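Good morning C.,

I know you're traveling, so I'll keep this short. The sequence:
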Amino acid sequence: MMSNIRKYIGLPYLVWILLFVLMPLVLLFFQSFQSQENTLTLANYMNFFTWSYIKMTIMSFIYALIITLFTLIVSYPIALLINSLRHKQFWLLIIILPTWINVLLKTYAFIGVFVKDGLLNNILNVFHLADQQFLFTPMAFIIVSVYIFIPFMILPIFNSLQDIDPALIRASHDLGASKIETFKRVIIPLSMNGVKTGIQVVFIPALSLFMITRLIAGNTIVTLGTAIEQQFLFNQNFGMGSTIGVFLVIIMILIMLVTKSNDQYGGMKS
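The tokens, ready to paste straight into the viewer:
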């Protein structure tokens, strides 16, 4: 009786997976073999291995790595600080609150900061320094991307830090380890599952960013996400766009395998 009830409870989930996960992937795969004239072809895959697409893929990886690295560098100390505070759940909520704001609104807000007569140039003018071009630069693109991804990196790291048994840290101190040695030999290894989950959550979306590249980088940066958007919306080449999407899915699966967490909850319990 209970086993039958469990089957019916899980049925909507299976239907959802079939309709919104598996079927789109199957359609994406088959469409990648279609030309603009709706004939079967391998030309899209051959085009992907030309230098222009290989260069774009490499640049996407480089920018995704930079964004993930800076996000980790900023997020880890913040997660440590929050974990050491008394009302840690309250401070965590404060950090997560910006994720409730639409990404497009946050991006437009940064345009007001980076524009020629924006906040940064007004600060420079106070010190009698010349105006600088901040908007439409790789630096602005990385800053905005890091800002948007920070909460998604903090949350899994914070969860892993919370799971560390305080007795292990006390034992480390009792055995003569300094705070730095305890951090290196106890806290970092035991929080690696959260770091791996954070890398997955940040690196994979960073590969497919497209809106920020247009609004902040001014199309000076072309990522895999930008290329997919361009093929679907501007070139109307659905086959080529799907081919790039297939490679993006393959890359995402490889990244998930490489950064696979040993924690059954993947550091995402909260």
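Safe travels,
E.
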